[in-house]
C-alpha cells in the first residue's frame, strides 16, 4: 500500500547490491549440478591427471605417457576402438530399424510400451550377469550350443570365438541395440507425417522423401547416436572382464592390469595415463555428440 | 481479376470407410475451373477425408476422382500435380524458404538456377521475397503458411488444396492471410478446394460453400445462399446462430407467437413445428405495448460485437437471440422490457418426422 502524497516503494527482492552494483543470484540454482560435476567428474579427472605425471617416488615424469606406446597398449587401443566402432555401427543400424518399427506402430500401442521398457532395462544390462547369460546359452557348455551341436551345427568348430573380440562384438550388441532404441526414438518421433505427405504432393516418391527430407533430418541424430554408442562401448569394462580374463584385449582392462599385476609390475601412474587416454577419447566423442544433438534439436 | 485458367475437378460418389466407420458416404462434388469451393463442417464430418482422397494421400473404397477430364483415381499423390497446403508445420525445417518452395521443382528435374529464380518469384507473389533465406523456425506461423502456399503453387499444379491452413494462426493473422490466399488464388486462377471448420472463413473466401455432415454434402451453394436459405436444419444450425422457436405450420407459413413467417419449403403438412430463426431476422420494436404480448420480454444480456450487438431476450418460456446495430442495442440495457418483431424472411422448420429434402 502506498500513502497518498508519498512515492510508491519498490523492492528488489533477490537483487542485492554489492558495492553499488546489482548482482544476480540466478546461478545459485546451478550449485548442486556444479558441485556434482566438480566432485564426481572434474576432481577425479584432475587427480588421475596429476597421478599420471608422477612416478613411484611421486616425482614428475612423462614416462607414464611414453609407455602408452607399448605394443600391447597400442594393440588394446586399436582393438577397443575397432570393437567400439563395430558395435556402435551395428547397434545403431539394428537399433534404428527397431526404433523405426516402433514409430510406425500405434503411438500408445503395447508393442511400443513393451519395447521401450525392455530397452530401458537391457541398455543397462552388462557385466557378469550378461557374460553369464551368454556363457550359459551359447557358451561351450551352454544349452543352445549343445542343442545346435547335437543337430550338426558346431559354431565353435574353428575357434572358441565367444571369449575373444568377436564374442565381445556379439555380447556388446545386447546392450548397444536397446541403447540406440532409447536415444534414437525421440528423433524419429520428431519426424512429422505432414513432411512425407508434402514431399509426395510435390512430386517426390519414397526415395526422394528419405533422400531429401527424412534422411538429412535424421542423419545428425543417427551420427550422434553412433558416437554415444561408441563411447558406451569404449568405456565398458565389466562385461569384457567377465568374459575374457586373460590377455586383457580391452583398454579398460589394461588399467586394471597395471594396478593389480600378478607379476609384480604395479604401475599406478601408468594406469592413470591409460585412464587419461580413455578420458580424452570419450570426451572428444561426447563433444561431437553434443554438437550433433544441438543441430538435431533445432530441426526435430 | 485475371481470367480463370484452372481445370474442372469432379468427385463422383466417393466412399471411404475406416473399419466399420464410414467417413465419406457417396460424396459427389464438381468444382468449376478456377473456382474456390470451401468444404465446411464439424470435426469428423469427412471434409478432410474428401480432400485427402482428391490429393491421392488416401484411397477411396468406391467412386472416382476426375481432374481436367482425366480419371486420376488410381494415381498416387506424386503423379497428380496437385499443390497442397497443410494445417501447419509442413515446411521442411532443414531447408530455407526458397529451398522449400523449390522442392517440387527439384522433383521435376528443373535446373538449380531456374528453380531458384522461380522459387523467388513465388515468394514475391506471397510477399515474402525478403525471407527467402530464412528457416521455418525463423518465421512466424503466418509467414510459414505463406511459404507453404508459394511451395504448393511453384509446381504450377492443376488444383490447389488447402487443409485448414489458417487454423493454427491467431485471429488477426488468420484474417489477413485468408484475404491473401484469395488474392493469390484469383491471380493464379487455380481451381481450389479449401477445407475448414470455421464458417466465417468459408463464407468469406469461397465462391461456393459445401456444408458436410456424417460423410455427406448437406448443401452446396454460394455463401449468401447457404447462410440465408439453409437447405437443412443442420446447415441452419451449423452456419450462423439460430433461434429455435415453437410454432404451427399453416398453408406454407409458420405462425410463431402471432407472427406469420413464410417457409423456405412451403410444401409441408400443417401442424406443430420448430422454426429456425436467425438472430438478425428478429428486431427490437421501438413502439407499441411493451408490457404484454406473446413477443414481449425482458432483456437479460447484451453482448457487444463491434458494429452489431447480440441481445438475449427472455420471453418467459424461452429465450431469443436478437442481433441489432449496437446503437439500437444500447437503448435496451439488461432489465428493460422489449417487444420483438419477426421479419418475414423465409425460415426452415424442424420436426420429429423427416424434413423436406434439401434443394
Show the helix and strand layout:
The complex is a heterodimer of chains A (300) and B (359).
Chain A: E1 17-18, E2 21-22, H1 31-52, H2 63-66, H3 71-104, H4 110-122, H5 127-138, H6 143-150, H7 165-189, H8 193-201, H9 206-234, H10 238-243, H11 251-259, H12 268-299
Antiparallel strand pairs in A: 1-2
Chain B: E1 9-18, E2 21-31, E3 36-40, H1 47-55, E4 62-67, E5 70-71, E6 82-85, H2 97-107, H3 112-125, H4 141-154, E7 159-163, H5 171-188, E8 191-196, H6 199-205, E9 208-213, E10 216-221, H7 223-228, H8 233-238, E11 243-250, E12 253-256, E13 259-262, E14 271-277, E15 282-284, E16 296-304, E17 308-314, E18 319-325, H9 326-329, E19 337-342, E20 348-350
From the structure above, extract its key features.
heterodimer; A: 300 residues; mainly alpha; MetI-like fold; 2 domains; two-stranded antiparallel sheet; B: 359 residues; alpha+beta; Rossmann fold; OB fold (Dihydrolipoamide Acetyltransferase, E2P); six-stranded mixed β-sheet; five-stranded antiparallel β-sheet; 9 helices; 25% helix; disordered C terminus
Rounded to the nearest angstrom, the distance between the terminal CA atoms of chain B is: 31 Å
Tally of strands of chain B: 20
Number of domains of chain B: 2
Strand content of chain A: under 5%
**Mean pLDDT, all residues of chain B:** 90
Q: Overall 3D geometry of chain A?
A: globular
What fold name goes in the CATH topology slot of the largest domain in chain A? MetI-like fold
